[in-house]
Amino acid sequence: MTVPQRLTDRKREAIIQAAIAEFRANGFEVTSMDKIAATAGVSKRTVYNHFPSKEELFAEILNQLWARITDEQAVTYRADQPLREQLLPMLLAKLQMMADDNFLGLARVAIAATIHSPERAQDMVARMGEREEGLTVWIRAALADGRLKTVNAEFAAQQVQGLLKSFGFWPQISMGLPPLDADTQKAVAESAMEMFLARYQL
């Protein structure tokens, strides 16, 4: 029984990778399930067995994208460590992920796909909000430990992430600027961290 299961997993992964390639090359609206099936080297029926619709397939790609964001940002709050030693790696991981070509390509597709569909946009924003929970949880723990001034954790998390995105995400998405190099990532992360701590650290 394990061999067919492995084959099924391989086909599912092939479909996802083919969909990523097609969405990046042609955008959401133009990409068809037929083309995804051909690129994946599977039948159209196999594609529909795994994903009932193009929207479901796209949602799975976004889920994987946001899951990777969560994994790279996952830092458990430590009461015995300085805040800056915990916060900086989280912010750097966020910027490094934003500099990934595959991430930027998919983000462009995702944003383009939502422009003409408010429902899809709302769904995406909800997914993004869920996946950025790691920093919010960390801030909440630091608040509970009495090391930050009273603030809404979601607001503070969004605030600091906005600082990162204004350098490492929106210019790349909207103006086609190159991803930030390692030195610039470090400078942006350190600056955002200092602004956050200057405002909220007790």
TrEMBL record:
Residues 32-51 bind DNA. One of its GO terms (molecular function) is transcription cis-regulatory region binding. Residues 9-69 form the HTH tetR-type domain. Signal peptide: none annotated. The keyword Transcription regulation applies. Keywords: DNA-binding, Transcription, Transcription regulation. InterPro entries: DNA-bd_HTH_TetR-type_CS, Homeodomain-like_sf, HTH-type_TetR-like_transc_reg, HTH_TetR, Tet_transcr_reg_TetR-rel_C_sf, TetR_C_Proteobacteria. Pfam families: TetR_C_7, TetR_N. PANTHER family: HTH-TYPE TRANSCRIPTIONAL REGULATOR RUTR (PTHR30055), TRANSCRIPTIONAL REGULATOR TETR FAMILY (PTHR30055:SF224). This is TetR/AcrR family transcriptional regulator.
